[in-house]
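We modelled each protein-ligand pair independently. The example shown here corresponds to the flavin-adenine dinucleotide entry; the chain sequence is given first, followed by the ligand as SMILES.
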Amino acid sequence: MVQEQNYWLTTVAMPPTDPSRALPETADVAVIGAGYTGLSAARTLAAKGAKVVVLESETIGWGASSRNGGMVLTGMKLGVHKLISMYGRERTERMYAAALASIDCVEQIVHEESIACDLARCGHLEVACKQAHFDDYARQVEVIGREFHHALKIVPRSELRSEIGSNLYFGGMVDESSVGLNPARYVAGLGWAALRAGACVHETTRVEHIGRANHHRSPGWRLETSRGPLWVRDVFVATSGYTGRATPALQKKIIPIGSYIIATEVLPEPLARELSPRNRMIYDSKNYIYYYRLTPDNRMLFGGRAAFFPESGDTIRKSAEILRRGMVEVYPQLRDTRVEFVWGGTLDFAFDIMPHAGQIDGLYYSVGYAGHGVAMATYQGQLMARRIAGENPQNPFDGIPFPGAPLGLYNGKPWFLPFAGAYYKFLDWLS
Ligand SMILES: Cc1cc2nc3c(=O)[nH]c(=O)nc-3n(C[C@H](O)[C@H](O)[C@H](O)COP(=O)(O)OP(=O)(O)OC[C@H]3O[C@@H](n4cnc5c(N)ncnc54)[C@H](O)[C@@H]3O)c2cc1C
């Protein structure tokens, strides 16, 4: 029987907070959302001496930060050719460097805070679903090596068995710099780190409304929350795919998209080694992507956008079977393997599929990680905290154009997702 439960949460307890503690009347900064973005920012701000209050409508790590694949990947969602055409070489180079720095940032925090989250530099493998996708790998390796001095390795089909126990693909591309970790243990560790640094975290505290307000003539913000009001000088919105009505301008720029994961029973060691001889983080080259990896205890964790809508009981149940079929297609060896867990979470896509940080209507924010958020959310949280503290850190994603829906035809309710899902399936068939 498949449990509708996040496997990662069976491996860790989140830091306890005091539910009876009242909100303070005032603080320097309110951080909305206790995932990687918010907790990383809170840790940095508190360490700089700011009085920081983290407001989380559910519990620490409740959002995507405890539910993801734990793949800490180099690069961004968009390919390098597309990025250069959008931003030019110089900015793309800085973006690429920031994406690499974001992985170092995770590694540094894990070491500084002694977070036991099974972090390993095991590298990632992208596998080509079509010959044309494999041909494009060679072009990418050349440009990334030449322009960004970062080495990737092509794996031809004849050698792919050294990387993956599947005959499905036309070849692969390896980046040794990517990392794997246990995402729930990582967000729990970030939570402890923020608390130790002096941040106050208020769980089950939903921010319902934010308005400009002075306090003793100081300009700032009054937040109405499910636990009463609070005045702060600055607000940092870190709500990702769960961005809602409290920040309507941001909500209109974010498309929440569901992603789903299954985890099998624990596999025998020889089978686990056959499926993933080098323990890579793996994903394929389709638009309707599959991503998969072994967990530290040798389960196959297999994820994908089985349904485009954000998670609900219905989409999670349907996803379990869709993903199991996908997994067996990749790995026929798992035909009789039991699937023990299925869960889902919500990704945040901007209309240009880019991360965005900056200020909107005076509120600081960082969103738009498009499924590449473990490292980037941590990193942007830290950079935005430094900006809020009055520093001027280099951040190539801060202030880039942040497009809304074409013709403004979007009010935060993604009615077009079934069409988008069909469109991506069509593109996969076509290209
Ligand atoms: C199934 C899945 C697989 C993924 N796999 C990967 C992967 O392998 N690698 C990778 O890099 N990325 C992956 N991602 C993406 C990554 O998990 C996210 O980009 C990252 O966790 C975003 O962190 P965050 O802190 O910004 O947001 P979240 O962790 O989503 O936190 C946002 C929080 O804001 C809270 N909130 C929202 N509104 C309010 C309000 N009004 N008041 C108070 N609190 C509020 C929510 O309750 C939530 O806890 C995946 C995501 C999913 C869903």
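The longest helix spans residues 80-112.
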